[in-house]
Amino acid sequence: MDLLGLLHLDELSHGLANMSMFPFFDMAHYIVSILALREQPGALEVSRVSPLACWFSSMLFCFGGAVLSAVMLAEPVVAPLSNSTGVLLASITWYLVFYCPMDLVYSCAALLPLRLVLSGMKEVTRTWKVLGGVAQAHGKYKDSLLVMIAIGWAKGAGGGLISNFEQLVRGVWKPETNELLKMSYPTKITLIGAVLFALQQTHYLPLRTHHLMLVYTVFTVVNKSRMMLTGSSGSPFAVIELAIYKTLFTGHSPYAALTGEVKKACLDRGETNGTASPAGTKEKTTPVPPVKGGRGSLKAKEESEDADATNCKKIN
Fold this sequence. Notes:
Layout: H1 2-6, H2 10-17, H3 24-38, H4 43-49, H5 51-72, H6 84-99, H7 104-109, H8 112-140, H9 145-161, H10 163-169, H11 185-201, H12 209-230, H13 238-248, H14 254-273, H15 294-315
């Protein structure tokens, strides 16, 4: 990318691309993920009642992306847990966050300056996970852009996408919290990253991998820091999302006009007959079964009018 070369950022992008995530960045990912689990409603009570369920939920928070991508690629689900060092590190983090004496680890990690640094490091790992998922899918399905996006999205935001299953482990069932129904910011930014890296891998986006990694990482870290400092949880793409939604997905409903006509006809009929009911009063209507034939229809109409007149008299 010529712009990055002019700004002398090419070496920085290479250094970022060659940076190792283990152990410091992985540790930051585990800490922030388990902190998020502890702050879930009822999670602390579960840790006292069933430490095993709490530990399993923590592992889903830490390795949910790898588990979900393994399921989608028909690979062993337990493969992500084969990294004994990573599991051990995550388990130690889980124990210290939930069971450290005097709650020292959680109290220190929850401080804004330290949490800001840890969250920024976690966003760096997001870039590697999304790129790793896209590259893994590209190795098996070179011409499938959709598969690459799906695997990159799953690997980068799997913890959120399988949140309903994780909640079941803790005995909670909240289907309305499904990420597909209402996406959180991490899920959205991961999806955007998966699309960008998939386009870059298929040469639709004329950028080098390390350049895109630098741009995406800087954006996610800066935006996450801004959201934490300002206390905002809104997406920076809210305006664009609203414009696209109103343009493409809010068509005129044919039932709206029909409903309006029915309401207008009912009001006109009430004003004509002088039987408008007072505010807060509900009229009772007598159902009339359908009758075949002209005389039957006329008789049903007369019975309906008599019932309306009787109701009006009762109200008055």
